Amino acid sequence: MSTLPKCPGCSSEYTYEDGDNYVCPECAHEWPMQAAESAETENSVVDAFGNELKDGDSVTVIKDLKIKGSSLVVKVGTKVRNIRIVSGDHDIDCKIDGIGAMQLKSGFVKKA
Question: What family does the database annotate (predicted)?
Answer without folding.
Answer: Belongs to the YjdM family.
